[in-house]
């Protein structure tokens, strides 16, 4: 065969190969285009809103409004643009935001049974498994909530017991503040003191402030709470299957909670060992007895797994919230020394310096009561409440919200509603006082939310806030640490909390 014939053959082969690959490439490309168009159409059809669904910003294909930050300030801006009832789509999950006193009241109180469920939030589902109180639904939720409320009443609020426990803890807190020689950050003392009240109720004992093991648990907890607000944690909620395998702060959060669970398991084990059925000492003892009683009713969920989650619930919901509110309280007193002085004058006049404040003093202290309320209003620690879910097809503000849609009631917008508060942007105890200086309740005071899912620890929290706050101001005058730049801008984790600050506590 000649060399020319060989070259021709090679050329033909090459052209054929190029054609083959080009055609293959074109095929692949058109295939890809086809798939993308198909997926886009599927995305549009799958996520099509029903008629009269609340409006909202245009979602991106596949990911929805993923780039919209979910902090309450962004939500407030969107409310101005789209109205008191608007929606966002996160991945394929639609969420409705409800703002302003009128609409939030309509959702939580007037339509009491419409938004009483919790949706599955992947981040918390992994930890709480839909058990306990805060994130459960239906028959299990009803039974667990009722049990906690009954326990709080019989062990706590109803009796003098809890008041005494708060008074004793106030003394320990006061000693810890006294021992500080210079400026200090009060965060962990407050955290420890408040969690000790829950510990007394649940475990039957408190922990010393220098107990290293417990300090470690509190550190893990407060870190986990901050991590719950991280971008990774939010993304986990949208793409749980992907983020389950990716490293990041969300993994640290899970590992912190596992360690906290181990600590709680240890407490349950010890309680089981020396349980005396004729003399239940605390929440765990009562729960262990309830497990036996409800043996024939497994749907009610009384078992060790739910006990663990319910304890985590109480620990989380009952510690961070109240401690953060008190921290805002101290910060405001430092920032507004005139108000601090007026509270102290009332304390000196009504209680004096020789005895500890008690709940019986509260009706005689309208100014202090107004300041504590204003701390909660202005502190705004749970700005968007806890996410709920429509348990039936519902119409709100003229919009249709189908069963199963996630709903956030914007409590921040209620606590700052211009139509309900004289000076919402200013710390003003006058919001809760009438012309005669008497304390007045306000309808738009909803830091604990309202309706079926309202905070069940409200009475306990109110007692803690009044007693700790009054006791601290009876004993100390608070001022900023030298060169401390106090910011009223908070940071958002599980709660909206003050940035760390250092203060000086001078004995009075
Ligand atoms: C200043 C302190 C507190 C504030 C501001 C607060 C606020 C809230 C808010 C806004 C909710 C969500 C309500 C809703 O979904 O509509 C809630 C739920 C809850 N809180 Fe509190 N809370 C505080 C203290 C406590 C304490 C001390 C406890 C424990 C004894 C507690 C236990 C709970 C529980 C278990 C839930 C879930 C209720 C349910 O889903 O049925 N909270 N709280």
Summarize the structure.
This protein is α+β, with helices and mostly antiparallel strands and 508 residues long. The protein has helices at residues 3-46, 72-82, 101-110, 122-128, 138-157, 161-179, 187-202, 212-227, 231-238, 240-243, 249-273, 283-293, 304-335, 337-350, 366-379, 411-415, 458-475; strands at residues 85-90, 93-98, 388-389, 394-396, 399-401, 406-409, 476-480, 490-492, 496-498, 503-507.
What does this structure look like?
The longest helix is centred in the N-terminal third of the chain and has 44 residues, at 3-46. Helix 6 runs parallel beside helix 17 (458-475). The chain has helices at residues 3-46, 72-82, 101-110, 122-128, 138-157, 161-179, 187-202, 212-227, 231-238, 240-243, 249-273, 283-293, 304-335, 337-350, 366-379, 411-415, 458-475, and strands spanning 85-90, 93-98, 388-389, 394-396, 399-401, 406-409, 476-480, 490-492, 496-498, 503-507. Strands 1-2-6-3 form a 4-stranded mixed sheet. Strands 4-5 form a two-stranded antiparallel sheet. A two-stranded antiparallel ribbon has the order 7-10. The mean pLDDT is 91. It is an alpha+beta fold and 508 residues long. The site of protoporphyrin IX containing FE (HEM) has 25 residues, from helix 13 and helix 17.
């Amino acid at each position: 065969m000649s060399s020319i014939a060989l070259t021709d053959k090679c050329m033909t082969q090459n052209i054929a190969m190029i054609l083959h690959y080009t055609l293959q490439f074109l095929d692949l490309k058109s295939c890809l285009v086809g798939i993308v168009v198909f997926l886009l159409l599927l995305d549009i059809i799958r996520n099509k809103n029903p008629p009269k669904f609340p409006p909202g910003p245009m979602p991106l294909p596949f990911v929805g409004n993923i780039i919209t930050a979910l902090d309450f300030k962004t939500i407030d801006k969107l409310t101005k643009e789209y109205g008191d009832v608007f929606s966002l789509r996160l991945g394929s999950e639609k969420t409705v935001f409800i703002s302003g006193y009128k609409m939030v009241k309509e959702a939580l109180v007037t339509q009491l049974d419409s938004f009483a469920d919790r949706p599955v939030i992947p981040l918390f589902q992994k930890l709480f498994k839909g058990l306990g109180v805060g994130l459960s639904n239906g028959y299990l939720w009803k039974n667990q909530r009722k049990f906690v409320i009954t326990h709080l009443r019989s062990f706590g609020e109803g009796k003098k017991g809890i008041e005494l426990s708060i008074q004793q803890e106030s003394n320990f807190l006061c000693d810890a503040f006294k021992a500080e020689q210079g400026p200090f950050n009060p965060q962990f003392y407050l955290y420890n003191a408040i969690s000790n009240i829950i510990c007394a109720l649940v475990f039957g004992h408190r922990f010393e402030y220098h107990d290293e093991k417990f300090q470690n648990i509190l550190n893990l907890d407060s870190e986990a709470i901050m991590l719950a607000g991280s971008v990774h944690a939010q993304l986990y909620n949208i793409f749980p299957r992907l983020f389950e395998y990716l490293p990041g702060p969300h993994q640290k959060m899970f590992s912190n909670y596992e360690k906290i669970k181990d600590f709680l398991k240890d407490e349950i084990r010890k309680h089981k060992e020396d349980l005396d059925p004729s003399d239940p000492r605390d929440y765990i003892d009562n729960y262990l007895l309830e497990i036996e009683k409800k043996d024939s009713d497994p749907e009610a969920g009384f078992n060790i797994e739910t006990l663990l989650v319910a304890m985590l619930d109480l620990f989380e919901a009952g510690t961070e919230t109240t401690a953060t509110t008190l921290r805002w309280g101290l910060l405001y007193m430092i920032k507004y020394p005139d108000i601090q002085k007026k509270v102290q004058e009332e304390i000196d006049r009504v209680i004096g310096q020789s005895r500890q404040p008690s709940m019986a003093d509260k009706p005689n202290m309208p100014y202090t009561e107004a300041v504590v309320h204003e701390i909660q209003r202005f502190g705004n620690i749970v700005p968007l409440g806890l996410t709920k879910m429509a348990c039936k097809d519902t119409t709100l503000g003229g919009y249709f919200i189908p069963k199963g849609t996630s709903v956030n009631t914007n409590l921040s917008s209620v606590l700052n509603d211009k139509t309900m508060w004289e000076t919402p942007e200013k710390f003003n105890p006058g919001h809760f006082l009438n012309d005669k200086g008497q304390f007045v309740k306000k309808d738009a005071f909803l830091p604990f939310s309202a309706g079926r899912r309202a905070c069940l620890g409200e009475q306990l929290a109110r007692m803690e806030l009044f007693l700790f706050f009054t006791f601290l101001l009876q004993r100390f005058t608070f001022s900023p640490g030298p060169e401390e730049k106090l910011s009223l801008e908070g940071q958002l984790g599980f709660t909206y909390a003050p940035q760390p600050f250092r203060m000086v506590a001078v004995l009075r």
